[in-house]
User: Fold this.
Amino acid sequence: MTNNTSPASNIAKIALDGLWKNNPALVQLLGLCPLLGVSSSVVNALGLGVATMLVVMGSNIAVSLIRHQVTDAIRLPVFVMIIASFTTCIELLMQAYTYELYRILGIFIPLIVTNCIILGRADAFASRNPVLPAALDGLMMGTGFAVILVLLGALRELIGQGTLFAGMDLLLGPVAADWTITVIPNYKQFLFAILPPGAFVFMGFLIALKNIIDRRMEERRQARDPLIPKTNKRVRVTGNI
Assistant:
């Protein structure tokens, strides 16, 4: 079957899927354990988001490079080994350069190995596509996950503590020591927002907001061209892409 789509349209589709249409956090609802457990502040969310993005991008590239040499019988164990190797590299780098943040994130850094987003993209996309599309898919999926993670962290930090970007020096060093923004002075902490139950509530609001935006966009498309068929398709992280 001949694929008549242009490279530019393929790039746009991969980017749009990762950032919006098939966002791993808002649509696929994968990786919720670290998403809800770590996102109590912007610095925690950004640290884990960048780590996850690097692992999913690196593992996609590696899986794409060896896709013709790995048989179906050992495919998944090999993918897990690759993901574990990249996760170990990220863990060692964080221990060396951002040790305090590494201690705060704790078990969630090594648990990147078990993140369904990474294994799912390796199996569903990287093992079936060349290196460049696989790298772009990993970058966009990782970025989409990181953006939602940081947005959730910002909401929880703001409502829970009345600040933004507190402790950014843990990730970016002394240059970010003065980045803390006190939005509400003398704010009494709202503990519910900082704890995991608050993360469930805020995550629900974000998912609802995305659904509302998608519905409004679909209504506008229908108004412009009534002949466009209505679609309500949810893209899966596994299976044929």
